[in-house]
Every structure is written in structure tokens, then in C-alpha cells.
Design brief:
The complex is a heterodimer. Chain A is an alpha+beta fold. Chain A has helices at residues 2-9, 13-17, 36-48, 79-89, and strands at residues 28-35, 52-59, 66-74, 92-100, 109-117, 119-131. In chain A, strand 4 (92-100) and strand 5 (109-117) form a beta hairpin. The longest helix of chain A is centred in the first third of the chain and has 13 residues, at 36-48. The chains are: A alpha+beta, B alpha+beta. The interface between A and B is medium-sized, with 24 and 29 residues.
Chain lengths: 132, 109
Amino acid sequence: MADEGRRGMTGNQEPAQGRGQGEPAPDKLILAIVQSEDADDALAALTQRGLRVTRLASTGGFLRQGNTTLMVGTTANRVEEALNVLRATCRTRSAHVAVPAEPPSLVHSYLIEVEVGGATVFVLDIAHYEQI
Amino acid sequence: MSTAGRAEMAGGEGNGVPMPTQLIVAVVPGDLAGHALEALLGAGCRVTRIASTGGFLHAGSTTLLAGVEESRVEPALAALREACRAAAKPEERGKSIVFVLNVGQSDRL
């Protein structure tokens, strides 16, 4: 079956579907609010390490640029690893934003440099976990 | 437990709806979302539904948030289990994930 073939090729499909036997239940939930443009990289890097990620669309931050909330359920001993992945993939960078000149003059607007990116991270304790 | 005291202080007892002390976060495959939502509502939870993606091929899923008082967690989870098990296709079994988190403080404004 075509489906079977695809299964065989994707090594990480099984973990992505359900926790393997013997794998400890997660006791920490990481909520990471990242820039949308970093989200794909962060998601790929986390998934590659076998971390389970759920992605939520959200907005917020400077100029309400799109951002993405990633939910990662993991064990306490892997939190630092997940944070390192986020540090590596969600770097702060500078962007230029046009600001209207005040008062209006020959120059209509100025470009100012702002810092965007990075990640806002909350790590919460999971009181109970189950897979249905 | 201190959580009960907190719920009282928040004033929820007065109008008959205690303030939530636990947050149920359920991530369910897209087509189970309706069933899961109904189950939580049936168990008396207030539910917020968020579109999400996750798992293999970033399939569509729905994240449900329900703030509940401690005594309602187990009935809510039981309703959720029953609904998801009844409605899940074979390939969806075991794919609904539930986290229960402690709520530090909650207010209805």
C-alpha cells in the first residue's frame, strides 16, 4: 500500500503519533510564542529531536505581526534541550519600520530600526497527562 | 487545599460557579473536535476552541481549553475519554492528548 510505503520512509512518524512504550509521560508543558517566520524552523528542529509540538496561530507583539504559539509537552529533563532549540531557531534580529515624519516635511517617513524575534517562553507543570 | 481558598476569594462561589483551579488542555484530531467539545460542555465546562496543527504532516487538530474546578476534572476527563473513544476512527486512537495544568489564579472580569 502506498500509505505503508510512506510510513516506512518516515522514521519519525511513529513518535509523532503517539508516545512509544516505555517513553515517560510528559510533566512539563512549554508554551513558546515565536515569530511566524521562525516557527517552521523551530517546529522542524523540535520535531527532529522527537519532541511533540502542537502549533497554534496567534497574533500579538510589535505591530501585531503574526506570531505562532508552539506547545511542547515534554519531560523535565528535556526542557533545557527544547529551550536550546528555541534559542537557536528564534533569534532576535533587527527590522526596519517606516515611521511617518512628524511634523510632515519633505521626508515623508523615517526608517527606524526595531528588534524583533526571539521567543517568549512559559514552562508549566503538567498535573496530569493522558492519551486517549 | 489552598486552591479551594483561592476559588472562594475570587468570588466565584457567590454566583454558584466556582472559579477554575485546573486548566484542561486537550489536543484532538480535527474531526473529533466537535465530539470532544460537546463532551466537555456536557460535563459543565466552559470551553475555548483553538485551531492548531501538529503531529504527522501537520494534520489539522483542535486545541480545547477548559478551566475547571478540581472536583470537576475527573468527570470532565471521563466524558472526554468516552466521547473520543466512541468517535475515533482506528487511526485516530491514542491521538488525543490531554494535559491538566494547575491554575495559579483565575478571574472572571
